[in-house]
Design goal:
By secondary structure, this protein is an alpha/beta fold. The protein has helices spanning 3-16, 18-25, 42-58, 73-85, 100-115, 174-183, 205-215, 245-254, 258-271, 273-279, 284-287, 298-306, 379-392, 406-416, 447-460, 469-476, 495-505, 518-524, and strands at 27-29, 35-37, 61-67, 92-97, 127-128, 132-135, 140-146, 160-164, 192-197, 221-225, 293-294, 313-318, 321-324, 330-332, 342-347, 358-364, 369-375, 397-400, 424-428, 435-439, 478-480, 486-488. The protein has two domains: 24-225, P-loop containing nucleotide triphosphate hydrolases (Rossmann fold); 313-505, 2-Layer Sandwich (Nucleotidyltransferase, domain 5). α4 (73-85) crosses α5 (100-115) and α15 crosses α17.
């Protein structure tokens, strides 16, 4: 191989291989204040592998990253985008952060990349301002902005977007900013959108983006980076660490060293367990914690989420038959037992897009979550759904919340369709002692705490088994307000919670025969 061909090979590798380019061309300031080459750490390598894989399969990058604090992800994404924009024609990169200080820090990092870039690779600069690097020969540019302005991304055509700490963007403009930015990036090969953030509660754009990526509905790939893969997150020990039972469990589960547990213990002591899990998550589920006062135990719900199985069937109602469908509204988690008694709780919505959902929760007599139906359907049709759902589950006892739109569902199911096993309430007139039968269950300021507290007690005492992820997530965002009322956090739903609470409340439990022994007869004699 000649010297020229060898140089061409090296140049080609610098053009196509980011890991190679980074360690030979990019300079960073480390946590200790040193200027060093960017050699990808464990967290950055996970992200780069995901980028390479998506580029190979789709030719473009659409990634959302849920991470722990200070793992070098913003540094990596900034370097990757400089690598692309500084070597290719007609590229435009936009970096958007949550605060002016962060915007300034990320742009300083990019200018450091540019100023320390080897002369052979450094593009000619037309100008460099406080917010933009412009490469005139390439007709490419690198721009930074702070979330909050209504004009971000509008009227632009972008090739690369870095949304940094998306969960912390101003809630008043975050959705508008995000929608404008992603519309500015054409759905073409060579483009890239990367959103990264530490979690910040449950009702924000980042959380919605992450859930959509996990569900496979929005075209983004989810990349989770746990805290414990970062070698710097450890504390030196002078002696052996005496572990608590909880630490023993997580040590085995995540293969943690004593030094890592010491780091965790110190951070938990400083900020509390829930905040540690949000900022240093070991699993995606524990990262998203409610910002309010949760009614149900978050740690128990996270454990359910970690072990939640996939449905054994996904069905939709076609005529009078339940048939398999990949987008079916009914998720079934256990086989129907012919001798089993089932209970169904139903929460009714108006059935319009963008609104709440109509939900039916199916519990067995031993309080296992057997199935869940969740859809935006009209109240009258929901009665038809419940009729066929109850019939399929051995004529299950159905309790419909008869408040608001639920009155139509309850009336149609109980009277028009004459469902044989329908929950009713007997109302006694205080003056005349006359009894009136009322169809369904009325949720009021008195009965709502009753059914919610019953559900909370059964969860605490581990009398109920839950499998559905949407249900578990809604339970996590069901909070107590300052006035004592209980409801979903703003921007979240509680339809599955109310349906589950109803099914649980009317559930009589499993009948267990009393075993009569000879000793009992002897005692009676």
């Amino acid at each position: 191989m000649t010297k020229k061909s060898k140089l061409l090979q090296i140049r080609k590798k610098l053009f196509t291989d980011f890991s190679y380019y980074a360690k030979n061309s990019l300079k960073i300031r480390t946590k200790t204040g040193e200027i060093k080459s960017l050699k990808l750490n464990s967290a950055q390598s996970i992200l780069q592998d995901a980028i390479n894989k998506q580029m190979q399969t789709e030719g473009k990058v659409r990634i959302v990253i849920l991470k722990a604090r200070q793992q070098g992800i913003s540094t990596h994404v900034g370097g990757y985008f400089y690598f692309n924009v500084s070597q290719r024609k007609a590229q435009k990169c936009l970096v958007v952060t949550h605060s002016a200080d962060s915007t300034r820090a990320l742009f300083d990092m990019t200018k450091r990349y540019h100023e320390n870039c080897p002369q052979l690779l450094k593009p000619h600069t037309k100008y460099s301002s406080r917010k933009e690097l412009s490469f005139d020969v390439l007709d490419s540019s690198y721009v930074v902005a702070t979330a909050g302005s209504e004009a971000i991304g509008r009227g632009e055509t972008l090739t690369h977007v870095h949304a940094s700490e998306l969960a912390f963007w101003s809630s008043s403009t975050a959705k508008e900013n995000w929608n404008a930015i992603i519309q500015a990036v054409p759905n073409e090969k060579g483009t890239a959108i990367i959103a990264e953030s530490t979690a910040n509660g449950l009702s924000n754009v980042f959380q919605e983006l992450w859930r959509g990526a996990c569900d496979g509905t929005n075209g983004f790939i989810p990349v989770f980076i746990p805290w414990y893969i970062d070698a710097t997150y450890s504390e030196q020990l002078q002696s052996r660490l005496d572990k608590t039972p909880e630490e023993e469990e997580i040590s085995k589960r995540f293969n943690l060293k004593d030094e890592q547990l010491a780091f965790r213990r110190k951070r938990v002591a400083q900020n509390g367990l829930m905040l540690f899990k949000q900022e240093y998550p070991a699993t995606p589920e524990e990262a998203f914690i409610t910002t309010g006062r949760p009614v149900f135990n978050p740690e128990q719900l996270i454990e359910f989420l970690d072990n939640s199985p996939k449905p054994i069937a996904q069905l939709t109602l076609e005529g009078e038959e339940w048939n398999e469908h990949f987008r079916g509204e009914l998720l079934v988690y256990e086989n129907i037992e012919p001798s089993e008694t089932y209970y169904i709780g139903a929460d009714v919505s108006m059935g319009i897009r963008g609104g709440d959902y109509s939900v039916a929760q199916v519990l067995s007599s031993d309080k296992k979550q057997v199935a869940i139906y969740r859809a935006q359907v009209h109240p009258d049709y929901f009665a038809t759904v419940l009729f066929h759902l109850g019939t399929m589950f051995n004529d299950a006892l159905i309790a419909v919340e008869n408040n608001g739109h639920g009155l139509l569902t309850a009336t149609r199911l109980g009277k028009d369709l004459a469902y044989p096993n329908f929950y009713t309430e007997v109302i006694v007139d205080k003056l005349t002692d006359k009894e009136t039968i009322k169809l369904g269950f009325t949720t009021s300021v008195k009965t709502k705490p009753l059914i919610i507290d019953t559900l909370r007690a059964d969860l605490r005492e581990e009398k109920i088994n839950l499998y559905d992820k949407i249900t578990l997530r809604e339970l996590m965002t069901f909070v107590a307000e300052n006035n004592g009322a209980m409801a979903a956090e703003p921007g979240c739903h509680d339809d599955t919670v109310m349906a589950l609470a109803l099914a649980n409340y009317v559930n009589d439990g499993k009948f267990t025969p009393v075993e009569v022994t000879s000793d009992m007869y002897i005692e009676m004699i």
